[in-house]
Amino acid sequence: MEENITTKDSLIKQYGFSEADFAQIKALGISLDKIEGELLLFQLGIPKITLEKPATINDGIVKLSNEEFQKYADFFDSKKDKLKLKKFVPASGAASRMFKFLSEFLNDFDHENETINAYINRKKDKNLPIFLAGIEKFPFYEEIKAKLKELYPDYYSLESHEKSYRFIKTMLSPEHFDFCNKPKGILDFHKYDTEITTPVEEHLNECAFYASSKSVSHLHFTVSDHHEDLFQTIIDRVKHKVVEKSKTTLHVSYSHQDKSTDTISVTPGNEPFRNENGQLVFRPGGHGALINNLNNLDADVLFIKNIDNVIQNHIQEITLYKKGLAGILLDLQQQIFKILKAVENDEIAERNIPEIIAFIEQKLNIDVLKDFHKYTIENKLEFIKNKLNRPIRVCGMVKNEGEPGGGPFWVTSYKGNVSLQIVESSQVDNHNPEQVAILAKATHFNPVDLVCATKNYRGEKFDLTQFIDMSTGFIVHKNNKGKDLKGYELPGLWNGAMAKWITVFVEVPLVTFNPVKTVNDLLKPAHQPQNGN
């Protein structure tokens, strides 16, 4: 290749990019270097992560008693009024996966020639019978039934399987409820005596319980730009109720996934993928793109939780554990800041270093090089400062109950350093029996229950983009109008995007983890009325 060739010339020469392509890229705000880097990643492949062992209790995961959690929660309460707290909720995803088995039913069901039972037997569908058996318990049941009576005056005289078919069709139909294409956060999740609530409202409630200081609470949603109005409509409707009940002022803000974080798609042969109009196809970069949204927030403590992990019951218990995690974070941060200030003020002698290293290894799970003792005092202090002057995250972990998703592991980097990471199964080499065996030994699961501190010991915000492990993205196989393509997803928000943060894992009980991955999860006790609710 010619020396000093520009990135633009390289893209023209290697991939046949045109001026129209460059105009498209510029409109998205994507740099040409980023495009070239992604195209190179497709060709080279992304190295799989190297698991050392699962993180387990007393080996990467801290286990506390309820009394200890209460102590840390009290510590948080004693500090919070001097802090700016914020809750960060990724909420841009549509609910399509939640209704996947029902969409498949509408596509595959032979309405003219078979009954629903015949379909269930033919497809060996285990989800549809559960949905139908619990249909009257769904919080949206009455609203859809009212619509059906309006659409079909003879609704009550129909056979039960025909009623069920029309219910599902109306629920998913773009002309009516269109649940598949709506964001999960605005769907009806919980039915109370006098009202039905959405995840948005439940997050407002939670925020007032544990993420407020001086009776002020800040909640930030990442949403699709075309869905923001739907969120705002709900908030306008319910906010006053939450404020009145909690005696807390609520501030809600939004951000969108930046189009400049979209990634280029390629064909199975790693050539840029083009649509029927000859344009390049870009895809959202996955939840890892949200590190930029997080980076733009100003807060001393950030609570991170997924939009679908809300509960109808046990809010006091959940509050205890969230506050407990925040207390652990503040306690560790206090110790870290004390050391960093002492380093800056030249107050640390050689005799103090073993105690600091013990804290770094035992409390923060940071790998210290074997020949560290050979360093000069200056190099030792530089090492300590480098390892401690980072964002901090305390992550709740629940016992593994077979849920799909990531988990806590000790991971070895290509440099040989060992660190605690949240790992997705897709990051592991499934052709390597040893790695698969380590993956299978995971005792805990990542429920996305994080409390983070993103300011340094001087009170300045970290640039979070400096702490990403760019080698931990994902190549995904997708389809565009019948044609196979490969896409690239950025290092996940709590995976590679936070890989270089100080990381502490703490076991939290299963009651804190109640995700709604499929619509049938709404039938579980955590999402059904209890005790007169």
Characterise this structure:
By secondary structure, this protein is of the alpha/beta class. It has 16 helices and 20 strands. It has helices spanning 7-15, 19-28, 32-44, 66-79, 100-108, 116-123, 127-133, 141-151, 160-172, 199-210, 228-246, 291-295, 315-344, 353-362, 377-388, 433-440, and strands at 50-54, 56-57, 60-62, 85-90, 190-191, 196-197, 212-213, 216-222, 249-255, 263-264, 282-283, 301-305, 392-399, 407-412, 418-423, 444-445, 449-453, 474-480, 483-489, 502-507. The strands form five sheets. Strands 2, 3, 4, 7, 8, 9, 12, 13, 16, 17 and 20 form an eleven-stranded mixed β-sheet that branches. It has a three-stranded antiparallel β-sheet with strand order 1-14-15. The chain has a two-stranded antiparallel ribbon with strand order 5-6. The model has no long low-confidence stretch (mean pLDDT 91).
| Global structural class | alpha/beta
Measured by DSSP, the beta-strand proportion falls in 15-25%
Specify the helix fraction band: 25-40%
On the 0-100 scale, what is the average pLDDT?
Answer: 91
What is the overall silhouette?
globular
Instruction: Compute the number of strand runs.
Output: 20
Instruction: Please state the CA-atom Rg, rounded to the nearest Å.
Output: 25 Å
User: Helix tally?
Assistant: 16
Low-pLDDT ranges: none
The biggest beta sheet is recorded as: 11 strands, mixed
| First-to-last CA distance | 70 Å
